[in-house]
Amino acid sequence: MTVPKPEELGDVLSEVSDLLEVGGVSVALKRLAPLRPADLSAVVAELSEGHLRQLLTKMANPAIAEVLENLDVDRGSRVFDSIPETRRPAVLDETSPEVATDLLHRIAWDEAAHTLVRMRNFNVIGDLLVHDDDDAGGLMSPTFGKLREYWTVRHALRVLRQMELDPEMLRELFAVDANDVLVGRMELSELVFAPSDAKINEVMNRDVIWVSATEDQESAVRLMQRYRLPSIPVTDGRRQLQGVITSESLVEVAEQEATEDMFRLFAMGGGIGSRNDIREAIRARLPWLVLNLFTVMAAGYVLSLFQPTLDAMVLLAAFLPIVMGQAGIAGTQTVTIIVRSMALGESSLSNVWQLLLSEVAMSLIQALVAGAILGAVVHVWNGQLALTILVMCSLALNLLLAALSGVLVPVFMRLIRIDPAMASAVIVTTATDIFGIVMYLGLASVFLTVLTS
To answer: Is 384 helix (H, G, I), strand (E, B) or coil?
Structure first.
């Protein structure tokens, strides 16, 4: 079977929608049958709410579960909401515990409890639900290769065969003592080629990197990246093994965190797939848009204070947007780099001075290059040395401020326990705008007699 192109899946979506419009649910299911699970999920997720409900009423529970397994949490939640409540427990029993937990986290607690008590995996899913979505415990899988340290290799292999685990969960095995305390790890290949009569504690690696179930999932991401781990065991407060997070799950988390930080950096909300998404996006974006409106008006007010200066020499206005714009871009670049490094754990409050010195040095180099280019243009255009010096000095000072605020604003927000990605760019841009006006026109006021002579 060939891999369908996006436009071909779009054609399938149109066909299925047309069939469902006239009540042809059975024919629509036949049209979807040849698709691979990932392609089927992509088409189903794009159906309108009414068509989605129609299709799910006739789709078998395992098929619906397969769709949910191949969707991210946001789109999966939309599909899950369209499943009749009486069928939800049976559908979730067909999914992995992690997927079921994520979906139950997205609905009201009373609905989740009503669904949970009717599931076969009641105990497993219940243990996962106590953890927040953003915690390592909420991301772990409770099904994994667990070995007792006192087992022989022969016995361990026999147990693993009986467990019928997903091959993904057999890449790395973890050893525990009689009290389920994590004591070691080993790869499946190491177990297979070990002497059959050897004990697990004789062939395992005792150097284990683990994460607490209550730690933020970003900690697990950083550990995976730093040590190139295929999976990370999750423990409780007594270091008893609770579950395992696979690298696939952590990659998804890293992508989600990066996307969220990007949205927050520019004061944006999430997607716009549904009415709830639109309401959430408005709540996330509108306050910062209003704040930005007031900051722009503040910059306009500051500009009005220098109206006599602008009236005296109209040419000054031509270079003001350049000074403000260059500093705004430089400040946003610095904020992006600092927020990213904080998210990846590459920088913290302990190395603020190092970050500051690095960005100041960078801003000075940028000021020399950009200032020289702008100064040359101003001198050729106007020929007044005083105006050339004014523009160059204003640009250099504003770039320096951009570097300082680009580092200090996100660091300060982290210090007061506010997400630095949330609105750092708005604050930095406002600071560079207002400071740029004050610096540029303030210096112009001082040297006005020179410029107009």
So the answer is: coil
Q: Is the pTM of this model over 0.70?
A: no
CB-CB contact of 324 with 431 (8 Å)? no
Residue 175 bridge partners (DSSP): 147, 184
Joined together, the tokens standing for residue 204 give: 């395992």
DSSP-derived pairing of the beta strands 172-176 and 182-187: antiparallel
pLDDT digits (tens, 9 = 90+) for 368-380: 888 888 888 877 8
**Shared domain check, 293 and 364:** yes
267 is a domain residue: no
The amino acid at residue 263 is F
The last residue of a domain, from among 104, 135, 166: 135
In 46-179, alpha helices (H): 49-58, 61-69, 73-81, 88-94, 97-105, 109-116, 122-129, 136-139, 153-163
Residues 417 and 371 placed together within one structural domain of the fold: yes
User: Same domain, yes or no, for 40 and 94?
Assistant: yes
In a domain, residue 270? The reply is no
Domain of residue 12: give its range.
6-135
Mean pLDDT is lowest, of 263-267, 293-297, 353-357, for 263-267
pLDDT for the residue 284? 58
Whether the CB-CB separation of 56 and 64 falls below 8 Å is answered with: yes
Both 300 and 375 in one domain: the answer is yes
Which residue's entry shows tokens 């899946």?
9
299 inside domain? yes
Q: What is the CATH number of the domain that holds 46?
A: 1.25.60.10
Amino acid at 101: T
Per residue in 235-283, pLDDT (tens digit) is 998 999 999 988 777 666 666 665 555 555 554 444 444 444 556 555 6
Helices (H) and strands (E) in the chain, counts: 23, 6
Distance CA 440, CA 445 (A): 9
Distance CA 281, CA 294 (A): 20
Q: Characterize the bridge pairing of strands 241-246 and 231-235.
A: antiparallel
Distances (CA, A) of 186 to 10, 207, 396: 45, 10, 57
